[in-house]
Amino acid sequence: MLNRETIAIIKSTVPVLEIHGTTITKRFYERLFESHPELLNIFNHANQKQGRQQTALANAVYAAAANIDKLESILPVVKGIAHKHRSLGVKPEHYPIVGEHLLGAIKEVLGDAATDEIIGAWGEAYGVIAGAFIGVEKEMYEQAEKQRGGWEGFRAFKVARKERESEVITSFYLVPADGGEIAAFEPGQYISVKLAIPGEAHTHIRQYSLSGSPGEGHYRISVKRENTVPDRPAGRVSVYLHEEIEEGAILPVSAPAGSFTLDRGDARPVVLISGGVGLTPMVSMLRAIAEMQPERKVTFIHAAQHGGMHALKDEVDGLVQDRPNFEAYWVYANPTERDRETGAFHKEGYVDLPWLKQAAGTRDAGFYFCGPQRFMRTVKLALKEWGVPAEDIHYEFFGPAGGLD
């Protein structure tokens, strides 16, 4: 436990972190990779290039400092990050390395303002925070390995089937290469896929939501092909999967992880809202409800650019048409003439609060949503304006967590 003096020093640095947080975390990653380039095999290079990882870490450090006297209040955030760490293979021996370079970055950026007293207090605080992560992740590693069909680290999976779902999304059906059982998962969780791309100095790890149902004997991921931009590696992995990975290929995969999961203990209506490839965890949730809670009222809302970019539509339509308490609505930002001729969508434009109220019918429900950050911000603000309680609002970021307020 931290003493009062240390807590006071940490809290006094909160305004400084609010101003310089991203600069500190940017320098932290530069120091980290200069000293330990092998860690580039774990971290997402695209998120580094785009600054998303630096911003997410800055927000996490800021939250830890602001809540240093009541760390239990950010335990849900800790668990969400710990799930990602376990899925990527972050281990206890990595934490001292991170601590060394984080403190070094604070000292470099703040200069003389980072007194020995402040650096000492942050060293103590980091030790407590790192200990919390290590403890939570230890339990997660043990659970992942010891569960039925579980395993440690990465396991070889074969691409049993590859199926194009839309102009930009392709599904990969993965089965264990050793023919053994696979671990169950909660609807909304993800797996990590590790790729060694020819010509690349480091491996790439990407986390993809599972879009199928638990208990099927395979994992299904539905991957969007991202556009590549010079000097930005955002699309490198998805393009490689789409263009180079065929049926029969072997991919190293980690056991399912993630804290964005469907509350199956809640019998109230559920509203599943997605944009773009954010529909993947929503489809998994819809399938699970259809199998395990078929009496539950479900409203499924998906936003896409147009019908050509709308993946898994027939699958969702099939689940909905056989269940009178299930409804699905499609929102197209730029519908094609064919979309108009066939009546393929329910709303042109974007999801807004008046329409959402009409589609959902009630705010006494569990709301789950996922998609591009701007889309998620719009949905969250609409739900808050409607008066939906915070405990009924659930969402997932693809990649490092960002801000929606």
TrEMBL record:
Binding of heme b, residues: H85
Positions of FAD binding: Y190, R206, Q207, Y208, S209, F397, F398, G399, P400
Key words of the record: Detoxification, FAD, Flavoprotein, Heme, Iron, Metal-binding, NAD, NADP, Oxidoreductase, Oxygen transport, Transport
Free-text comment on the cofactor: Binds 1 heme b (iron(II)-protoporphyrin IX) group per subunit. Binds 1 FAD per subunit.
Binding of NADP(+), residues: G276, V277, G278, L279, T280, P281
Gene3D superfamilies hit by this protein: Globins, Nucleotide-binding domain of ferredoxin-NADP reductase (FNR) module, Translation factors
Residue span of region Reductase: 149-405
FAD-binding FR-type domain sequence ranges: 152-263
Cofactors required: heme b; FAD
Catalysed reactions listed for this entry: 2 nitric oxide + NADPH + 2 O2 = 2 nitrate + NADP(+) + H(+); 2 nitric oxide + NADH + 2 O2 = 2 nitrate + NAD(+) + H(+)
Site (Influences the redox potential of the prosthetic heme and FAD groups): K84, E396
EC number: 1.14.12.17
Superkingdom of the source species: Bacteria
Domain spans labelled Globin: 1-138
Pfam families: FAD_binding_6, Globin, NAD_binding_1
Alphabetized SUPFAM superfamilies for the sequence: Ferredoxin reductase-like, C-terminal NADP-linked domain (SSF52343), Globin-like (SSF46458), Riboflavin synthase domain-like (SSF63380)
InterPro entries per the UniProt record, alphabetical: Cbr1-like_FAD-bd_dom (IPR008333), FAD-bd_FR_type (IPR017927), Flavoprot_Pyr_Nucl_cyt_Rdtase (IPR001709), FNR_nucleotide-bd (IPR039261), Globin (IPR000971), Globin-like_sf (IPR009050), Globin/Proto (IPR012292), Hmp (IPR023950)
Family per record: In the C-terminal section; belongs to the flavoprotein pyridine nucleotide cytochrome reductase family.
Domain writeup: Consists of two distinct domains; an N-terminal heme-containing oxygen-binding domain and a C-terminal reductase domain with binding sites for FAD and NAD(P)H.
HAMAP family given in the database record: Hmp
Protein name per the record: Flavohemoprotein
Species of origin: Paenibacillus glycinis
